[in-house]
Design a protein that fits this description.
This protein has about 290 residues and is α/β, with parallel strands linked by helices. Helices cover about 45% and strands about 20% of the residues. It has one domain: 3-Layer(aba) Sandwich (Carbamate kinase), CATH 3.40.1160. Helix 2 links the parallel strand 1 and strand 2. Helix 3 crosses helix 4 and helix 6 runs parallel beside helix 8. The radius of gyration is 19 Å and the shape is globular.
């Protein structure tokens, strides 16, 4: 009996601890970039879907933005097409763009939407082309050809607002509608950057990037060197010191862009840890790195 009572008390304590965070974030908008191992392993997939459903259920306006690099790579290999990267961005010719659009806007997007609904949530899967949600210009110069890779110019928030108003979770794949010289083409967009641009356009409270590392580390070889809280100004100093890993630089660039655009806080969290989103949002210590404006 005593063990049972203690168990009930522990469960109640968890809920009570989360209460002030739920109250603080109710009605706020949060943009989650979903990727990495959390998109590969079934148990992690289920945990992320449960997290975003709970966020929505307690009144957080949640937008899920996803990439799909491993799935795109697998399809390219199956078709015998070699991948090429320029500054970390996938070179995207016409054939590759067709594959990107098929994989991201088709299978990956609908699989995520299905998983949310399977867990009891409501979701609507869209890509950046739908309703002119994401409009982008083509990146690259005469000296650096990236193919059909884009940089977002505008975000049509009315598309997302309509879905959010209905009580559903928008699930957004990072393919955009080309404008200018790219008119008539779909463009491949970096998913982290798409999430940051969407967060700015929606005046989001938070941008949360799910990665395959604990967060921002002072020493990339030491997981215990996790930086829990840092300002955007301090982040810029770390870049200048050259101690930030190459893979983390583009992610922190997205966080800085979001903060400079008015997003209150940006978080880099470990998607390999089940329910990382809930731990980061509803506990005092969190699980990853929180970056604040200033």
């Amino acid at each position: 009996m005593k063990d049972r009572d203690n168990n009930y008390a522990d469960q109640a304590a968890v809920l009570v601890h989360a209460l002030p965070y739920i109250q603080r974030y109710q009605g706020k908008t949060m943009v989650v970039k979903y990727g990495g191992n959390a998109m590969i392993h079934a148990d992690l997939k289920a945990a992320v879907m449960q997290d975003v459903i709970l966020m929505s259920c307690v009144g957080i306006r949640t937008v899920l933005v996803h990439g799909g690099g491993p799935e795109i790579e697998a399809m390219l290999q199956a078709l015998g097409k070699e991948s090429r990267f320029v500054r970390g961005l996938r070179y995207t010719d016409e054939e590759t763009m067709e594959i990107v659009q098929m994989v991201l806007c088709g299978k990956v997007n609908k699989d995520i939407t299905f998983l949310i609904q399977q867990q009891g949530g409501q979701a609507i899967g869209i890509c950046g082309i739908d309703g002119g949600l994401l409009q982008a210009k083509q990146l690259g110069t005469e000296d650096e050809d990236l193919g059909l890779v884009g940089e977002i110019e505008t975000v049509n928030t009315s598309v997302l607002e309509g879905i959010l108003h209905s009580g559903a979770i928008p699930v957004v794949s990072s393919v955009a509608l080309g404008i200018g010289a790219a008119t008539g083409h779909a463009l491949n967009i970096n998913a982290d950057m798409a999430a940051a641009r969407i967060a700015v356009a929606l005046e989001a409270e938070k941008l949360l990037l799910m990665t395959d590392v604990p967060g921002l580390l002072r020493d990339v070889h030491d997981p215990d060197s996790l930086i829990k809280v840092i300002t955007n100004t301090e982040l810029a100093a770390l870049r200048k010191e050259g101690i930030m890993s190459k893979g983390m630089i583009p992610k922190t660039d997205c966080c800085s862009l979001a903060l400079e655009g008015g997003v209150k806080k940006a978080h880099i969290i470990d998607g390999r840890f089940p329910h990382a989103l809930l731990i980061e949002l509803f506990t005092h210590g969190g699980i990853g790195t929180m970056i604040e404006a200033g």
